[in-house]
């Protein structure tokens, strides 16, 4: 694997960029956005710096790329946080100034459609961070989730090993952002079930790569994924979105990664807890359980066909459910299937 640069970390009191390279949802939900900014100041001591397209829905991809490039170029900015995901960031990354990004590495935090940026930085040799959203996590109704808050703090300011912790409670039924009053009450949560381990009892250490599966599939179609030989040895990060892809499509997307020679190169895979509810698809508890089970079966089938020696860990709390643990992207991770522990180095 190509060597990667670990960007220097911010310190409390620093200025950090707030950008919307994907969807400009802060313009539609300013009450959620402003709550996230207040918490960024109060809880982390960081001063958010908003860029011109942050609150604009449908901004020109070139303008969004210009904002992101400017955030990396500004010597007074020490980290870059995406407000939320979306579905068209694949049109933005071609307009980034790669020389600027490579010459000014900074911690970038995002997930979902931000997989485009995470993968782009990875190919430039820069470590970034899967997770963190100004709207979804900093703007969480009621209060920050303790696991999300602690993980984000460690990722922002720390540089040591950090043990990930299974959530005692989790959720995937968010409050309605259209109702400002909904910010007063925490979202509904469910009892945690721990992680589910499959595969050989061994210890795997490596650097991470992956992200949202649907976006990875787009990147493969656009030929923006590094060769399989370059990614061999990576610990694969895999999670699905609020669009709730059916299990058969999850299998087919992974099968395509297998045919490309990618799956066989991953000694371990961390599979995010499947989000199984959305406002347009309000699945009942039995339906949610069946959806998650079907997805685990689809992932298991794909790896059984292409990578029989891979350690699989299901229901890890990263991705589109609550809480969200921050995972370094291109950073180091230790997956200990003997003691059933996962550690990352921020």
Summed up:
By secondary structure, this protein is of the alpha/beta class. It is built from 10 helices and 16 strands. An 8-stranded mixed beta sheet has the order 6-16-15-10-11-12-13-9.
Q: How many runs of DSSP E, i.e. beta strands?
A: 16
Q: Largest sheet, order of strands side by side?
A: 6-16-15-10-11-12-13-9
Q: What is the assigned CATH homologous superfamily of the largest domain?
A: LD-carboxypeptidase A C-terminal domain-like
Pattern of helices and strands: EHEHEHEHEHHEEEEEHHEHEHEEEE
* Contiguous helical run count: 10
The main pleated sheet reads as:
8 strands, mixed
Helix content: 25-40%
The whole-angstrom Rg is 19 Å
Strand content: 15-25%
The oligomeric state of the chains shown is: single chain
Q: Would you tell me the structural class of the helices and strands?
A: alpha/beta
- The CATH level-2 architecture of the largest domain is identified as 3-Layer(bba) Sandwich
Mean pLDDT: 97
What is the CATH level 1 assignment of the largest domain? Alpha Beta
Question: In angstroms, what separates the terminal alpha carbons?
Answer: 19 Å
Organism: Verrucosispora sioxanthis
Domain LD-carboxypeptidase N-terminal: 16-131
Domain LD-carboxypeptidase C-terminal: 205-335
Family: Belongs to the peptidase S66 family.
């Amino acid at each position: 694997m190509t060597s990667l640069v670990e960007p220097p970390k911010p310190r409390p009191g620093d200025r950090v960029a707030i950008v919307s390279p994907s969807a400009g949802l802060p313009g539609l939900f300013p009450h959620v956005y402003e709550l996230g900014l207040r918490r960024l100041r109060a809880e982390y001591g960081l001063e958010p710096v908003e860029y011109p397209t942050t609150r604009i829905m449908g901004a020109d991809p070139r303008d969004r790329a210009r904002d992101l490039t400017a955030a990396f170029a500004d010597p007074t900015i020490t980290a870059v946080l995406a407000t939320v995901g979306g579905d068209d960031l694949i049109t933005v990354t071609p307009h980034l100034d790669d020389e600027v990004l490579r010459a000014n590495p900074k911690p970038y935090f995002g997930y979902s459609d931000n997989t485009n940026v995470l993968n782009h930085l990875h190919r430039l040799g820069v470590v970034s961070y899967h997770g963190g959203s100004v709207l979804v996590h900093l703007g969480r109704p009621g209060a920050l989730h303790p696991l999300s808050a602690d993980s984000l703090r460690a990722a922002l300011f720390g540089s040591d090993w950090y043990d990930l912790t299974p959530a005692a409670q989790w959720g995937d039924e968010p409050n309605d952002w259209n109702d400002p009053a909904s910010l007063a009450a925490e979202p509904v949560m469910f009892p945690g079930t721990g992680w589910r381990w499959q595969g050989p009892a061994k210890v795997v250490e490596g650097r991470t790569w992956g992200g949202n599966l649907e976006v990875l599939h787009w990147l493969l179609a656009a030929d923006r994924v590094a060769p399989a030989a370059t990614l061999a040895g990576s610990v694969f990060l895999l999670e699905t979105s609020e669009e709730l892809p059916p299990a058969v499509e999850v299998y087919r997307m992974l099968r395509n990664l297998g045919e490309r020679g990618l799956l066989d190169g991953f000694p371990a895979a961390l599979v995010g807890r499947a989000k199984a509810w959305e406002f347009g698809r309000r699945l009942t508890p039995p339906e949610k359980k069946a959806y998650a089970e079907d997805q685990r079966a689809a992932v298991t089938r794909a790896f059984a066909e292409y990578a029989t020696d891979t350690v699989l860990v299901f229901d890890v709390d990263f991705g589109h459910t609550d809480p969200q643990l921050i995972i370094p992207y291109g950073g180091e991770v230790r997956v200990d299937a003997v003691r059933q522990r996962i550690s990352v180095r921020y």
